[in-house]
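Postdoc handover notes: sequence design on the structure in folder B. Input tokens:
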């Protein structure tokens, strides 16, 4: 079981890459990934025999992503009239496409392009994961590539959050306290039942337990902080030194003037891959 959990950790960035593109969101992709890993651990504890752990986990991640999309009840269809054979695009070209662009592809096309051109699976493996025929997987791959290239030519659609003034002021104050290193003031803002999700590392609950979370930030001098948005959600951006792109982001939930939840992606660098982010004044 210990070896199995270690393998899960090794595959986590790869699985997140798939879930994020399937759901159209790095944050939602992390939620789906956590659900998928729980399902995998439960199946293993119940005695599931696994020969190809990578393929098995991808199948679970695929089905969990579809469950999430069905619950969200979105329908984004890209009309295509030609079944054109397309050469394999460079992986870098695919990785630069934003999550929301992937979301505009039909589910099977999205699945095929991500599995083949981002993660390197064969058409046969795609068919197994998506539960379709190899011919259907190949057709979806070809059509998805064509559609994705056309979508990539369109202007970027940056999602700016609509923030009430009081919400902006609270988050701005939170960021400024981080910038000045006044973590005692932040601790005083924590609700008694506050929850911390240090993604890919640990989860804590309760004001006393979470107070030590700020110690790491207080001991580091290289971090810079800024008010921003990630996928249209207000967030604190975390920069490493003089880097132009944030290393991580932090999402905050409030109840009145109290902080009820902190979700910090510092230990999940894979979540920043191709994510939509912007810095706010």
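Designed sequence:
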């Amino acid at each position: 079981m210990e070896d199995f959990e270690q393998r899960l950790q090794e595959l986590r960035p790869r699985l997140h890459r798939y879930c994020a593109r399937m759901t159209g969101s790095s944050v939602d992709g992390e939620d789906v990934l956590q659900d998928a890993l729980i399902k995998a651990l439960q199946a293993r504890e119940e005695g599931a025999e696994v020969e190809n752990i990578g393929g098995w986990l991808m199948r679970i991640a695929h089905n969990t992503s579809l469950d999430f999309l069905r619950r969200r009840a979105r329908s984004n269809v890209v009309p295509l009239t030609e079944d054109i054979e397309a050469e394999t695009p460079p992986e870098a070209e695919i990785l630069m496409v934003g999550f929301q662009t992937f979301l505009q592809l039909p589910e099977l096309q999205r699945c095929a392009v991500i599995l083949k051109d981002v993660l390197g699976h064969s058409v046969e493996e795609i068919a197994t994961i998506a539960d379709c025929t190899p011919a259907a997987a190949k057709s979806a791959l070809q059509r998805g590539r064509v559609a994705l290239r056309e979508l990539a030519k369109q202007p970027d659609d940056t999602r700016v959050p609509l923030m009430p003034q009081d919400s902006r002021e609270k988050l701005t104050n939170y960021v400024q306290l981080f910038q000045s290193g006044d973590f005692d003031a932040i601790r005083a803002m924590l609700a008694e039942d506050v929850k911390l999700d240090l993604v890919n590392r640990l989860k804590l609950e309760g004001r006393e337990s979470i107070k030590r979370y700020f110690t790491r930030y207080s001991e580091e001098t290289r971090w810079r902080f800024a008010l921003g948005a990630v996928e249209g959600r207000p967030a604190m951006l975390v920069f490493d030194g003089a880097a132009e792109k944030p290393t991580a982001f932090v999402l905050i939930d409030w109840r009145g003037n109290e902080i009820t939840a902190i979700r910090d992606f510092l230990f999940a660098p894979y979540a920043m891959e191709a994510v939509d982010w912007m810095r706010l004044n």
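Context for whoever picks this up: Residues 74-88 have pLDDT under 50 and may be disordered. Don't rerun without checking with the PI first.
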